[in-house]
Amino acid sequence: MTNGGNRHNEPASFWTQANALLRKNLTFQKRNVKTNVRLILFPFVLCILLLLLQNLLNKQFDKAKNKCGCICTKTQGEQCLEKKCGVQYSDFDQVGACPITNPPEWPPFLQTPDPQYRAVRTDFLPFSDFPNPLCRNNGSCPITMLFTGTNQSLGEVLSGNMIPSTFGINNTDVMDSLATNVLGSASKTENTNFLEPAFFSDLPIYYLQSQCGKNSTFSIPIQISTTSRQQELRCAQALRLWRNSSSEVNNELYKGYRKGNTARKINEIVAGYDFLNSNENIFNVSIWYNATYKNDTGFDPIALARDPKCEFGHKIEDTVSSSAAQAHRVGHL
Ligand SMILES: *[C@@H]1O[C@H](CO)[C@@H](O)[C@H](O)[C@H]1NC(C)=O
Ligand SMILES: *[C@@H]1O[C@H](CO)[C@@H](O)[C@H](O)[C@H]1NC(C)=O
Ligand SMILES: *[C@@H]1O[C@H](CO)[C@@H](O)[C@H](O)[C@H]1NC(C)=O
Ligand SMILES: *[C@@H]1O[C@H](CO)[C@@H](O)[C@H](O)[C@H]1NC(C)=O
Ligand SMILES: *[C@@H]1O[C@H](CO)[C@@H](O)[C@H](O)[C@H]1NC(C)=O
Ligand SMILES: *[C@@H]1O[C@H](CO)[C@@H](O)[C@H](O)[C@H]1NC(C)=O
Ligand SMILES: *[C@@H]1O[C@H](CO)[C@@H](O)[C@H](O)[C@H]1NC(C)=O
Ligand SMILES: *[C@@H]1O[C@H](CO)[C@@H](O)[C@H](O)[C@H]1NC(C)=O
């Protein structure tokens, strides 16, 4: 052995060691050739799978039923040169994918309880000015609202102006004229209001009046986009009750809740209004309303709630003309 070859007791040179290690590794890898092929192919297989998935999804989303409906407005032989798409060209499956350029406008609604749950006189409420429980038999119970504030005579004027005594509708512009009245619905709110559930729930729409006449239920044709349907309108008498303090209002609202009384009865009051220190110059009001349908539990997505401020805002502001409107909510139930 010459030239720096391995003598018996000498350590092997770096190159010999590297060489040996390489051969050993190569042999080892040769034995595990399947594992190596799998290792190398894994990313490719993954990419191919993703590609296939992408193609599949693209194809699904490209299907006519997942796209807004269109018609051809200009053709050249077989080819379509110009398309027009929209709700009016779509079927039921396609409508959801259409852009909404002019969302419909809806009149505001109060969240009113079903007639059999509206507040009536009971043992667990200390006041006797609630309606007679017999009204539950024929669904004629009024909708009760509570009012309080520092100046009762002003409060009576303000609350009196909130409830109309006549109902008017203009047949040429039904939606707009509905909004000039005070409406209520027992329908559940949703996460969006693109289609107002009050018009799509088969429940009657209530119009609030200080007193209901004899023939107070009727049907009107309502035009929504391109379709027309009949909608039942029913009168609901609104009962305004004055309380001397906000704690009385709070107490009664709470007792109307099924778990707020020992009889486990539902005795719903639509809303409570505290006019606080409002006078000719200041308009300061606090509103209680039922936010159950908002689903603000921390688990569900927060839905919409019908806020009685929207319904009456303009009516109260018409009364207190030069006022700094400062409506705020104190709490929900
Ligand atoms: C409903 O019942 C009450 C009490 O019995 C009665 O005064 C009222 O006239 C009835 N209303 C209708 C619409 O039948
Ligand atoms: C209560 O309001 C009425 C009507 O706005 C007003 O005439 C009266 O002075 C007010 N009373 C008090 C104590 O502020
Ligand atoms: C009804 O509405 C139309 C269009 O907004 C208007 O021209 C007409 O004067 C209204 N009719 C009444 C009675 O208000
Ligand atoms: C609110 O929650 C209830 C019960 O969890 C559920 O049935 C309802 O669909 C929810 N509403 C919305 C608009 O998500
Ligand atoms: C109530 O309305 C119906 C149908 O619109 C009518 O036939 C009936 O005469 C009305 N009744 C009263 C008391 O106005
Ligand atoms: C409010 O207070 C007045 C005067 O103290 C009293 O006459 C009236 O009965 C009270 N009203 C209610 C609903 O408690
Ligand atoms: C609020 O509304 C829900 C749903 O209608 C009802 O179950 C509940 O009793 C109401 N709460 C009160 C305090 O009226
Ligand atoms: C409105 O009422 C609240 C609660 O009583 C009070 O804290 C606030 O100062 C009032 N605002 C005005 C402008 O008077």
TrEMBL record:
It comes from the Eukaryota. One of its GO terms (cellular component) is membrane. The chain crosses the membrane at residues 39-57. InterPro entries: ABCA. GO terms for molecular function: ABC-type transporter activity; lipid transporter activity. The keyword Transmembrane applies. The keyword Transmembrane applies. Keywords: Membrane, Transmembrane, Transmembrane helix. PANTHER family: ABC TRANSPORTER A FAMILY MEMBER 3-RELATED, ATP-BINDING CASSETTE TRANSPORTER SUBFAMILY A ABCA. This is ABC transporter A family member.
